Amino acid sequence: MYIPRKYQVVITFFQGDLTAHKINKMNIYKLGVCYRGIQMERFTLPEGFLLGTATAGLQIEGGDKNNTWYKWCEEGYIKDGSHCITACDHWNRVEQDTELLKQLNVNTHRLSLEWSRIEPKAGEFSKEAIKHYRNEIKLLLKNGIKPLVTLHHFSEPLWFHEMGGWHKAGNFSYFIKYVGYVVEQLGDLVCEWVTFNEPNVYIKFGYFFGIWPPGIRKLTYSLKVYSEIIKAHLNAYEVIHNIRQIMGFKGETKVGFAMHIRVFYGVTFMGKLLARMADYFFHELYMEGMVKGKIKIPLSKNGRTYCKDTYVDFLGINYYTRNIVEFTLNPSKLFHYLRSDDRLDKNDLGWDIYPYGIYSICKKYYKLYKLPIYITENGISDKRDTKRPDFICSHLGNIAKAIEEGIDIRGYYHWTLMDNFEWLEGESANFGLFHCNFNNQERTIRRGGKLYSMICKEKKLTDEMIEEFLKT
Ligand code: BGC
């Protein structure tokens, strides 16, 4: 049922309950409330804006036994017992899946390469794997879809860990060799690169909580890995630029990393203080290190100073949610924990839906670094697809508003093309614009996918789309 604007209701943050409120543009954006079907405003994105999808090799390809996540699945850590060996069988279905991208009318796609396939043994590169990725990328280009290629998206070759992994100083040079090889082989087709996906999530889960591979629970190790990955990024940045230049590859080289950014929100005095601390350790250390080459306390420089001014050509931001930060006496949790806000709508995994956050963080990081922004991921786990249309529009609406205010946002990559292997959640989280039936590998477009394909085509949200998809 459509409710006329003047009778509409929003949830306010400040009263903690449902409050009758006249809706207007200001309070929608301020509160960032996602309330089904009633608050959506038309928006238009700039000509040339990049609208696409994002995927990660391990989460969709299937079939590779040589990586850390394969071992993690074998050891039985996945909540629903599923296994990344199956995933979406994308390795054998590249053509079919490119058709899905065409159906969505995207003009760009972010994909990741599986290091363990490209370099199955240290120093031995697989021509076959590179040929496969070349064909995949060529197919995208043939269909007018610009690739953005991620070099490291959580998974790694098993041999890399047998040789000590990231916590062994100097091991970053293995990654650099792999990057060099890939850019030589694919750099004529790809101008835009993401070195690391969410280094902060990778380190937090893999080295601090130990719930992801390599399963280490040591603060001292996590700090070593921070430094090593920052170093790897700074070096990879230069290697990618140099190789593309020396080999005379066409197109402007752009290199960045995709940073998972949350809004940390403190309610109490301690909460505010801890939110600032969480922001420092989870965001600032990485951003300053990887964007500016500034190695801040408590990280170690290992005697090296980085003298360039900037080590990215764009800021890659993955945005999903906001957390309230609270105090706890537990030192192993660094005296804080994160909770959700009862007053906000949730995705299937219980994450708060907070569209205003995408606006506020773009504003914050643009002010800090004055660099073009790509939203390298944003999406919702929503099996029934009842919230996805609103989610997409409320986030894109906030992006359009930020652009109107002069924030240089160049692109948006929706996470994700189809339901995939969602790390610890296995097959049970559903972020796809297409539903994927893992038994027979059938892909079916969701309503959210249909709406996204229309937005990608028109670069705007129209009254007709609101009428068809967003009114309850
Ligand atoms: C990761 C993706 C993941 C998504 C949804 C991001 O943190 O980059 O690999 O699937 O979130 O959880």
What's the short version?
This protein has 472 residues and is α/β, with parallel strands linked by helices. The protein is built from 15 helices and 15 strands. It has an 8-stranded parallel β-barrel with strand order 4-5-6-7-8-9-11-12, surrounded by 6 helices.
Would you mind describing this structure in some detail?
This protein is α/β, with parallel strands linked by helices. Helix content is 38%, strand content 17%. It is built from 15 helices and 15 strands. The protein has helices spanning 25-31, 57-60, 68-74, 94-103, 115-118, 127-142, 158-162, 172-186, 199-208, 219-246, 269-292, 356-369, 388-404, 447-458, 463-470; strands at residues 10-11, 18-19, 43-44, 50-54, 108-112, 146-152, 192-197, 254-266, 315-327, 336-339, 373-377, 409-415, 434-437, 442-445, 460-461. The strands form 4 sheets. It has an 8-stranded parallel beta barrel with strand order 4-5-6-7-8-9-11-12, surrounded by 6 helices. The protein has a two-stranded antiparallel ribbon with strand order 1-2. A two-stranded antiparallel ribbon has the order 3-15. Helix 8 runs parallel beside helix 10, helix 10 (219-246) packs parallel to helix 11 and helix 13 packs parallel to helix 14 (447-458). The model is unreliable at 1-38 (pLDDT under 50). The chain binds beta-D-glucopyranose (BGC). Beta-D-glucopyranose (BGC) is lined by residues 56, 59, 197-198, 201, 260, 318, 377, 415, 422, 431. The site of beta-D-glucopyranose has 11 residues, from loops.
